[in-house]
Amino acid sequence: GAVVSQHPSRVICKSGTSVKIECRSLDFQATTMFWYRQFPKKSLMLMATSNEGSKATYEQGVEKDKFLINHASLTLSTLTVTSAHPEDSSFYICSARPRLLLAKNIQYFGAGTRLSVL
Amino acid sequence: AQTVTQSQPEMSVQEAETVTLSCTYDTSESNYYLFWYKQPPSRQMILVIRQEAYKQQNATENRFSVNFQKAAKSFSLKISDSQLGDTAMYFCAFTSISNFGNEKLTFGTGTRLTIIP
Fold this sequence. Notes:
The complex is a heterodimer. Chain A has strands at 4-7, 10-13, 19-25, 30-38, 44-51, 57-58, 67-73, 76-81, 90-98, 108-109, 113-117. The termini of chain A are far apart. By secondary structure, chain A is mostly beta strands. By secondary structure, chain B is mainly beta. In chain B, the strands form three sheets. In chain B, strands 2, 5, 6, 10, 11 and 12 form a six-stranded mixed sheet that branches. Chain B has a four-stranded antiparallel sheet with strand order 3-9-8-7, with no helix packed on it. In chain B, β5 (32-39) and β6 (46-52) form a beta hairpin. The A-B interface holds A 31-32, 34, 38, 41-44, 46, 49, 51, 57, 91, 93, 95, 97, 99, 102, 104-109, 111-112 and B 33, 35, 37, 42-47, 50, 91, 95, 97, 99, 101-105, 107-110, 112.
């Protein structure tokens, strides 16, 4: 149980295009999903917290208009990197917190998306 | 703000030996959760073990156990009988507690563990 699917696993795009990454909780409902960015050999940096049915909360320094987050249902959140540039190339990871395990504060992670912007 | 510190960037140990990864944290809260996550070469983050701060008993999960010292704000991970599949990046993480479910995880910088055959 507690599987989080993240798609695509890898994407290569041209500079100036937009890329959408999906994060789905397959066997549980998630009221809260998180989006992280990870640079090579570094820790995870939280970009934003996504709550179902409401606007995402972005961390300081993260551009809202650049990284659009939509949490349309209890099982799906999407991250869209708009007008991508080479400096946006990174590994993006999502996580989801099961609604029924709210008190345990456990997050389950997707397998990540490697974005390469040419 | 909470901070999590992992002072060992890299460690290596022979297969079947025991290894301990260190983690310290700083918080003004009295109740919270601590985690160890593993990130193998596949990059998939996997929960290894979880400790609730109000519990004095150290958490254990098979070969994995923690030494939780609340007063010292220390949360080390011990891996017994280490296996090749334990080779990974290990992250210590902290989260506070509330009723809203949107608490953030604060991660340490990680320890790269290599198990040597």
